[in-house]
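help with these tokens:
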Amino acid sequence: MIFDFLEAFNDQMLLLILIVLGVAFSAGGIPPIIERNRRRKIENQLPGLLESLSDAVGAGRGIQEAMLQQGRNTPGVLGKLLTETLESSHSSSFDAALSAFASKTRSAQVQRVTVLIETAIEQDAPLQGILSDLSMDYERLNDLMNRRESELQGRGILIIIFVCIGLPVLIAFIVGLFAPANKGYQIGDFNQTFSLFFAASSAIAASVSGRMLGRMKDFLWWLPFWMAVSMGLYLGAVKMIGG
């Protein structure tokens, strides 16, 4: 039965190509998601690390000693990277270790913070107050970013689900119910046109969602996948309902 169902799509060359491209391109779309989740975990931990550094510096510890201690006490990727970088920096300067740490995190927030710390050390500025202010500023910034992300992500997912899944199934149900193939209706050209329409609509919906979230390039990897899902759902539902 499954093979008979798949055989029904032998004449849909575009759908078969999109399925292959969707699977292949999805492999390229997964690493950006993993990298972004890693970076956001680091950035969400940054305010807590800065606050702890401010307290340690206020207690009379040196900035390098305080960073090494807090790196060991901080769980997750941020503490691990900070500890590894500082422990392996015996043959280099502290500034070089900070730059290497910022580079490993691949976070613009961490890179800006390290530059500010280096500048404060060079200018002999009060580190405790600077670290405390940075902690509060980045805590507010991350709260705003997380709130915006959660709101827009829900809307983006809703757009994709409605356009790529809900709409094709709904139209296929109507077409299959009122113009079933087992009753002799010749709607092959109609289905072909509508399948192309849903593929284009899915590409636009995924692009709009990516643009809303500010991750357009990451979402481009998933365009063939959603196009194939939309086409496959419409054509498959029409065949199942219409016979």
About this structure: The first helix runs from residue 2 to 7.
